[in-house]
Design brief:
Length: 258
Amino acid sequence: MTQAHKIIFNSWKNSIETQLISVISKFNLCLLILLGFSTSLPASNYKYHFKWGFLPVAELTFNMTKIPISDNNLIISFNLKTLGPLKVFKDYDVRGGIKRINEISHEYFIMGHDGGIPEEKIIVFSSRELPHVHKFIDDKGAKATDPISDLQVDPLTAFLMLIESVRNNNNNCAMKSSVYDGKRNLFVSSSLLKSTEEIIECKMNVDMRLVVNSKLKKWPFGTRERNIIFQFSRMDEDYPKKITIDGPYGRIVGIITK
C-alpha cells in the first residue's frame, strides 16, 4: 500500500471503526442482523431485472429460503446472470450467499462462471482477524488481493446493513463500511437522498481509490467513485423496489418484479 493509500485508508478507518464498534458492536451484532433477516422476512424470492435504457442486461435474485435445504446455516443466497445482448459479450452466471459458521464468523461464497471460465470464491469473515480467503478462482488465474482490516465485511453484508439502517434507524440510510470481495478493497457509505410519504431513497457512494487493478477498465463502476441509489417503498417489502447504478456509460436501472 502506498503512502497516499495509507492516508486515505486511515481517514476512513477512524470513521468506520467509530461507527461499527458503537452501532453493531463490531461484527457480532452484524451476524445477528443477518440472522434476523433470515427469520423476520418471509421465505421468498426478490428478483430484479436490470436494463440499460430499454435493453435488458442482468437479472439479480435474492433468496431468503435455505438453499440447499440440508444446509441450515445458510442465511441468504443470491443469483446474478447477464441477459440480452450483453450475454453474448459477457456470459456471467453466478450464485452465492452467506453461511453462518459460529457466533463470531461467517462464510461468504460465490460459484459459477464468467465468460465460460469457472469462478469460485470462499472467504471467511470474523470479528477477531482479517478476512481469510479459503478459495479464489477468477479471471484466468488472477490472485486474490490482500484485505486491509479486520473490520471489513463482504458485499452482501454491506447491502443488508443498508437495509437494516432503513428499517431500524429512523429511515436515515446512514451506514459506512469497508468492503472486501477477494479481488477489491472498497469503501462504501450511504446517506438519505429523498424522503416522501411513499418512498425513501438512499444514495450509496462506492469509493475505489484503494483499488489497484488494471482490469477495472472492464468493470462497470469505473476506477474512482460511483453512486448507487436504492429506492424503498414505505408500504411494501423490506428490499428496495428500485436500484439505480451510475456507470461510466450511463445508468443501469433494476426494478423488483416480485
